[in-house]
Amino acid sequence: MDPLLIGTVLKSIIVLSIVSALAGFGTYIERKVLAFMQRRLGPTHVGPFGLLQIAADGIKLFTKEDIIPSNANKLIFSVAPAIAAATAFIAISAVPLFHTFEFTVPVINQLVIVPSVIADINIGILFVLGMMAAGLYAPLLAGMAQANKWGIIGSSRTAVQFLSYEVVTGLSVMAPIMLVGSLSLIDFNNAQADGVGSWIVWQQPVAFVLFLIAGFAETNRTPFDLLEHEAEVVSGYATEYSGLRWGMFFIGEYANMITISFLLAIIFCGGYSDIGFVAGWLAMLLKVAFFFFLMLWIRAAWPHVRPDQLMWLCWKVLMPIAVINIVITGLVVMLG
Amino acid sequence: MNEIRKEDERVKGTQEYVLLDLSHSPETGFDQFAQVVKRTFGKELFVGLWVTLREMGSTLFGKGKHTVSYPLEKMPIAPRYRAIHDMLRLLESGNYRCIGCGLCEKICISNCIAMDTKYDENQRKEVSEYTINFGRCIFCGYCAEVCPELAIVHGGRYENASEQRASFSLFEDMLKPIDMLTQQKEFDGFGAVSPNADENIKKTPLAY
Amino acid sequence: MFELIAFYTISVLTIGLFLVTVLSKNVLYAMTALAAGMSLISGYFFMLGADFLGVVQLIVYVGAVMALYAFGMMFFDVTRDIKEKNTNGAVVFIIAGSVAVMLTMIFSMPLGINSIMTLVQPEVNATNPEAVGLVLFTKYLVPFEVAAVMLLVAMIGGIILAGKKMDDSLTSTEDDKIIDTEGL
Questions:
Q1: What contacts A212, CB < 8 A, 6 or more positions away?
Q2: Beta-carbon separation of A38 and B55 below 8 A
Q3: What's residue C183's pLDDT?
Q4: Has the ipTM of the complex gone over 0.95?
Q5: What domain range includes position C147?
Q6: For residue A163, with 0-12 CB atoms within 10 Å meaning exposed, 13-18 middle and 19 or more buried, which class applies?
Q7: Contact B189, B153 (CB under 8 A)
Q8: DSSP3 helix / strand / coil % (chain A, rounded to 5)
Q9: Rounded-to-integer distance, Cα C19 and Cα C32, Å
Q10: Is pLDDT above 60 for B78?
Q11: Which of C41, B51, C159, C52 is nearest to A183 (CA)?
Q12: In this complex, which chains have at least 3 CB pairs below 8 Å with chain B?
């Protein structure tokens, strides 16, 4: 059989299982980190250091009663969480995670090539952003289908926030695209293979910061988590959800966080190329872990913004800066 | 206006208040922009990040955590805290101190104390029934305050959740167990004589 | 083989979803089906090797246009069915039917003829986005610029329409003043 096909299927299965497990593990890490930053304990009782809390939460989510409100549109209500999880995983499929490598299965002597990216389309970066953009349908439809005023407010916030910040993500990533001259994330990685000095973040610090901010908004993380801001809109689009359906929203959110962390590492911070004696896969893991930690860290440190501040920030600050950044980069690329 | 200010000065006394400078909030669009620039590129955002990181470090490697893991460890409560009542015994005889005077029953404002007395074979008054309905008790402390014998006092048992009302409202449960008589301390909490009571005693002005 | 399966699956799904869009009386169903159909159309682009256009379809139609549409829908009660008012069924049928027949004829015309020509030869060595860019900025430069100007005009118009009362803050004005500005 085709060694590449086997490798791709193998990688899809592994990525799917690991990322959905990581969503659970991410909640554990998040609770622990937030607890330490506030001088608390975090989960301690289930298992050593509370590690089995993931399993306990999983059992709870699986066995909880799945309530569908009687006024809700049942079909859309049930489909919406699946959109959240599906778009998040489809987005990951175009992100190169680690090196391409090959090995031989000993008994049947079958060569297997595991590619660095599951779906190697040469416009990977746009595909990932587009798929994450399509992910806005999950909260949007969920909020509209559940016949709950908080849900409606949550979904209208979804539309406003995600649409606006999509502009910033797209524009901010344009400048690195011009520098590299390709839309393929593998080309991005190869362009930064000469060690730390060749990272795009040094040439495009503004784009990096803009992409980071917009990434927080697109993954619904704390300074911008208006979609389900408890103090204002109960739980936003997820108000009426319980059990496994709510869990799928959760998995989708954490998968998106992981995707954004990988994107930040690949586009701006050198990807999976080796740094000195540190192997590429380890460097990649460290970078992704750092960006994931950054999201938790900022959640512990910074307050929310108001919706009007969110819009103000997007359209009057971030977007003009992004456009200016593109113009300057374009001039430098053209003249230089 | 001035008088109020003076009044404030007088009340303020020697305390050193720090007044926050909240005088100007941005008016024009440019002021707003300037404020945002200052807050973005100033220290404010990063101080927040640094503080949380420092706390995380000190939690993990330094001072430790703030949390009291409650059922396993408990915070000491203040001696004058008013929790479930204790019935004390006489140290000499081991008999309970209550003389059945009924003052606590009378003063109880939520009517939760019920007692019944009879004369025993020595023609001494004996408490035959004594219950406090903790579903109604508001822990005001009047009973402990009025008791002439310091027989009923407020103890430190504050975890008063139970499946049945009876399990903490019986006289025998509140009574100090006889085998722990040696551990009975003279109560210095609510209703007890204050430590400096002797100094506070004044001579009764009899001589006019 | 995979491509054939994918094509027929996507075709059936797309047609089905757009049928739901047209026939359903529930706004929410119609909107969801339209969004799903739009995203499935990008599948055709991917199958034809036009990755860039597929992603653009995904971003522009699914991401932006549809979400704005959904935002508009939010002002209706989406849990109720809509009562349509068709005054004259025959007129609707004749107009819609003739337009459909005409469009089918126009688009199926080239199928029987062998003289189909590519107007622009695709650059062989260029990758997909580069090829699109080359065509866009050479042969179709004028339409591209016209479209850009049109969008700019639309944007300015939108800002003017929305920006009339931008200086009045609804939260920091007194209630009676808000009523005053409404002219009541």
A1: A264
A2: yes
A3: 47
A4: no
A5: 140-184
A6: middle
A7: yes
A8: 70, 5, 25
A9: 12
A10: yes
A11: C52
A12: A
**Whole-angstrom Cα distance, residue C40 to residue C10?**
7
* Number of domains comprising chain C: 1
> Looking at residues C56-78, what average pLDDT do you find?
73
H/E element holding A243? helix A243-267
Residue type for position A31: R
**B165 closest CA partner among B186, B136, B192, B139:** B136
- For A259, other C-beta atoms within 10 Å of its C-beta total 27
Q: What is the CATH number of domain B84-192?
A: 3.30.70.3270
Q: To probe the interface with B, which of A29, A31, A38, A298 has the most B CB atoms within 10 Å?
A: A38
Query: pTM for the full model?
Result: 0.78
Contacts 24+ apart (CB under 8 A), A332-335: A333/A178, A333/A179
Domain boundaries, chain B: 36-66, 84-192
- Asked if A210 contacts A318 with a C-beta cutoff of 8 angstroms, the reply is yes
In-domain check, residue C130: no
Our CA-based measurement puts residue B108 at a distance from the nearest CA of chain A, in whole angstroms, of 42
**Average pLDDT per 10 consecutive residues for chain A, totaling 336 residues:** 77 83 84 88 83 85 85 84 88 82 74 76 83 84 83 83 86 88 82 79 87 88 80 82 85 87 87 76 86 90 84 86 91 86
Query: What are the tokens at A109?
Result: 């002597």
Cα diameter, chain C:
73
Domain boundaries, chain A: 69-335
C148 inside domain: yes
Substitution target from C52, C79, C130, C152 for chain A, most A beta carbons within 10 A? C79
Whether the CB-CB separation of A204 and A176 falls below 8 Å is answered with yes
In total, chain A counts a number of residues equal to 336
Yes or no, beta carbons of B56 and A41 under 8 Å apart: no
Nearest to B66 among A39, A298, A300 (CB): A39
DSSP-assigned letter for residue A222: G
Compute, in degrees rounded to 10, the torsion defined by CA atoms A253, A254, A259, A264: 100
Inform me whether the C-beta atom of residue B51 falls under 8 Å from chain A C-beta atoms. yes
Q: What is the DSSP secondary structure assignment for residue A98, as one 8-state letter?
A: S
Helical axes C128-137 vs C141-162, angle rounded to 10°: 90
| Nearest in space to A172 (alpha carbons), one of A214, A138, A141 | A214
Give helix A124-134 / helix A74-93 axis angle, nearest 10°. Answer: 160
